[in-house]
């Protein structure tokens, strides 16, 4: 398979300031050594509870945040240290679609200006040509070209998300990180926007990293899913393989909370004890050991490797060490 995105040992630590001199007294380890890849044309879903580092991972691989450590390869090129003009050029190929369609669009700009802005910044085109492209993009996302002179507040949540998607597509990107892109929408509108994501993926030959805490949304759209817990990736597999054969105790608990239509297949819900520990003071060893019902002595002292246990099925857990 042809990999579009490769991530090796990625870390993103946020310094915590404090004390009299406002010095860095500690680090919040939002992402603490994750490695994965996304194949060209694929949708990788990323799931996990709030605060586990999904958004930070997405933003760091787009270089919207500076990585603390690790390596990011995009389309065969190491972009970890890329900056200035070279980074600006690369940025055209990778876009983020924001979480909240209500706050991510500038209310003082018309829809035409919002969608056309990236074209103005990155390309030298005439006003007429830009307007043509904006109208075409509106069409592609299911909005009328006549909307070009309207303002964001005149649109519904679903329509605003479509405007955000049109803007992200304006420069013909290869890769899109969709961060909770449908979470703020009503369920029926969610389905329409997910369908749009799927149509656009085919038409524009896109690759997605689709971040959501909603497992049913991720199951629907993703080819593969990765599960994050406290800044680490604990499991990654093809979507149905993950749902049918979850191996990591955290994934098992997470999936046991998803309603299953067939009552015969119903599994008992696994209730995790305690809260997620703080990423400022994460447990030593396996970060999940404090809540794991299978925790062994080794889990308290050593970090399990993220290993391919079965074909394409990666898990970080000592239960599978042979
Ligand atoms: N700019 C920042 N400065 C300091 N801490 C941050 C910053 N951004 C995120 N964090 C912290 O990093 C951790 C991971 O946050 P992140 O937003 O990546 O998680 P998430 O899984 O996407 O959660 P959510 O679904 O709630 O967005 C959290 O503890 C968060 O508070």
What does this structure look like?
With 322 residues, this protein is α/β, with parallel strands linked by helices. Helices cover 31% and strands 25% of the residues. The protein has ten helices and twelve strands. The protein has helices at 54-61, 84-91, 111-122, 127-140, 157-169, 187-204, 215-221, 239-244, 249-256, 297-301; strands at residues 3-18, 23-39, 43-47, 69-74, 77-78, 94-97, 175-179, 207-211, 224-229, 232-238, 307-310, 313-315. It has an eight-stranded mixed beta sheet with strand order 6-7-8-3-9-10-12-11, sandwiched between helices. A four-stranded antiparallel beta sheet has the order 2-1-4-5. Helix 3 (111-122) crosses helix 4 (127-140) and helix 3 (111-122) runs parallel beside helix 5. The longest helix is centred in the middle third of the chain and has 18 residues, at 187-204. It is globular and about 70 Å long. The model has no long low-confidence stretch (mean pLDDT 91). The chain binds adenosine-5'-triphosphate (ATP). This is Oligopeptide transport ATP-binding protein OppF (TC 3.A.1.5.1).
Task: Please summarize what this structure is.
One of its GO terms (biological process) is transmembrane transport. The chain is 31% helix and 25% strand.
Keywords summarizing the entry:
alpha/beta, Rossmann fold, eight-stranded mixed beta sheet, four-stranded antiparallel beta sheet, 10 helices, globular, binds adenosine-5'-triphosphate
């Amino acid at each position: 398979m042809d990999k579009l995105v490769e991530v090796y040992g990625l870390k993103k630590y946020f310094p915590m300031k404090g004390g009299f001199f406002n010095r860095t007294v500690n680090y919040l380890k939002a992402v603490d050594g994750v490695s994965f890849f996304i194949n060209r044309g694929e949708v990788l879903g990323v799931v996990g509870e709030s605060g586990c580092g999904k958004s930070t991972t997405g933003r760091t691989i787009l270089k919207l945040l500076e990585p603390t450590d690790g390596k990011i390869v995009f389309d065969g090129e190491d972009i970890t240290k890329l900056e200035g003009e070279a980074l600006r050029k690369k940025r055209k190929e990778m876009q983020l679609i924001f979480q909240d369609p209500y706050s991510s669009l500038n209310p003082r700009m018309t829809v035409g200006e919002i969608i056309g802005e990236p074209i103005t910044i990155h390309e030298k085109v005439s006003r007429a040509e830009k307007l043509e492209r904006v109208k075409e993009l509106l069409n592609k996302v299911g909005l009328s070209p006549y909307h070009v002179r309207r303002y964001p507040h005149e649109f519904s949540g679903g329509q605003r998300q479509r405007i955000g998607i049109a803007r992200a597509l304006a420069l013909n990107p290869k890769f899109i990180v969709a961060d909770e892109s449908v979470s703020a929408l009503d369920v029926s509108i969610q389905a329409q926007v997910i369908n749009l994501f799927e149509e656009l993926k085919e038409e524009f030959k896109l690759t997605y990293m689709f971040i959501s805490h909603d497992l049913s949304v991720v199951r629907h759209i993703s080819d593969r899913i990765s599960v994050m817990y406290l800044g680490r990736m604990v499991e990654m597999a093809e979507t149905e393989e993950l749902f049918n054969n979850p191996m990591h105790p955290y994934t098992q608990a997470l999936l046991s909370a998803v309603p299953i239509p067939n009552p015969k297949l119903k599994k008992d819900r696994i209730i995790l004890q305690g809260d997620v520990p703080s990423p400022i003071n994460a447990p030593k060893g396996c970060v999940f050991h404090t809540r794991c019902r299978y925790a062994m002595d080794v889990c308290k002292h050593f970090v399990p490797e993220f290993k391919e246990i079965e074909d394409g099925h990666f898990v970080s857990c000592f239960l599978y060490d042979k």
